[in-house]
Amino acid sequence: MPNRNPDDDIPEIAPIDEIRPGKIPCPVCGKTMQIEAKGRVAVDVCPDHGIWLDKGELEQIFRSIRLSAAGSHRLALKVARAKERPKCAHHMWWSLFLD
Predict the structure, then answer these.
(1) Is 23 contained in some domain?
(2) Beta strands per DSSP E along the chain
(3) Which of 16, 48, 55, 65 sees the fewest Cβ atoms within 10 Å?
(4) Is 99 helix (H, G, I), strand (E, B) or coil?
(5) How many domains does the chain have?
(6) Which among 65, 67, 70, 41 is positioned nearest to 54, based on CA atoms?
(7) What's the mean per-residue pLDDT of the chain?
């Protein structure tokens, strides 16, 4: 049996659209954080202490995820309808959350 690489099970991470220097110091170490932007959401990141969100940014992240999921769902239904299997696509979509 071949050796498995544990990294094979890690899903591909969506690339960050933009990384730029920030102006806000990390609340823990005081170093200036960088800003990482994906879509319309930009967050402050300290490489040593993690991500720091401003008011409303968590809601923006959730909204972005919901919109992306809705688009994926519509695409899955469209593909399934083209193959004349809409119930299968619908089941597969919900099984991500319910199984």
Answers:
(1) yes
(2) 18-25, 32-38, 41-46, 50-52
(3) 55
(4) coil
(5) 2
(6) 41
(7) 77
